[in-house]
Amino acid sequence: MTDKSKKIAYKLRYDAYIKSYANLKNDTGLLFDHFDDAPNCKTHLIWYDNKPVATIRSCIWSDKYQWMPTDSVEHFSDDIRKKLGKINLLESNRYAVSPDFQGRQSLFAQMLCFRIHGLNSIVHHCNHIITPVVPNHVPFYKRFLGMEVLSEKPKYFSWIGTEAELLVAERSTSKEIALKRGMPNYNTEDAQNYARIAKLDFNET
């Protein structure tokens, strides 16, 4: 909600990604792009003991935002058009956990990130969630979120310097599997609270 919080998220992203992707190294120590300031994208932070430990970004593709593109919509437009059509979608991206925050607590923080997507998808009437994932991370998303590969072949993402697959899951399916993995439950009332705090309009119909 503030520039200060956004910079905290950008630094957390940078610290999490730089060990695996040396091409991201820069003088600012921050990782951000033009989608971060787009009205259809929201960045979230998870805090523990007054420290930022995880971050994730939700980007919405819908008529509410005049079908403004997201990162995956730009890269996988043909796959989305052929297999899903022009429907409301929530894209999960820029997911990162602090390198200093590991173990069981780290997994719970990750589950809170996924819960955020559930809340935001309710607010924006998105029944499907998509995410671009590097190939070696696909098994995690299948196991913990019930996601499946949507893309016919990987696409190259220049910002990170590698290829990624596009995964998809229906919100209800993903929620059911994530609950079994330890994600806290959520309902429409929780989505209403999320919308109020995030200053988003929420029409339940």
Could you please describe the fold and organization of this structure?
With 205 residues, the protein is α+β, with helices and mostly antiparallel strands. It has 7 helices and 7 strands; from the N terminus they run αββααβαβαβββαα. Helix 4 links the parallel strand 3 and strand 4. It is globular. The chain starts with a helix and ends in a 7-residue tail after the last helix. The longest helix is centred in the middle third of the chain and has 20 residues. It has one domain: Gcn5-related N-acetyltransferase (GNAT) (Aminopeptidase, 3-Layer(aba) Sandwich). 37% of the residues lie in helices and 23% in strands. Strands 1, 2, 3, 4, 5, 6 and 7 form a 7-stranded mixed beta sheet that branches.
Terminal CA distance: 26 Å
Total strands: the figure is 7
Tally of alpha and pi helices: 7
The CATH homologous superfamily is termed: Gcn5-related N-acetyltransferase (GNAT)
Number of domains: 1
Q: At the first level of CATH, what is the class? A: Alpha Beta
Beta fraction of the residues?
A: 15-25%
Rg is 16 Å
Order of helices and strands: HEEHHEHEHEEEHH
* Helix percentage range: 25-40%
Which SSEs are present, and which pair or pack?
Layout lengths: L2 H15 L23 E8 L2 E11 L9 H5 L1 H7 L5 E9 L6 H20 L4 E6 L4 H8 L2 E2 L5 E3 L4 E9 H10 L7 H11 L7
Parallel strand pairs: 3-4
Antiparallel strand pairs: 1-2, 2-3, 4-7, 5-7, 6-7
Helix pairs in contact: 4-7
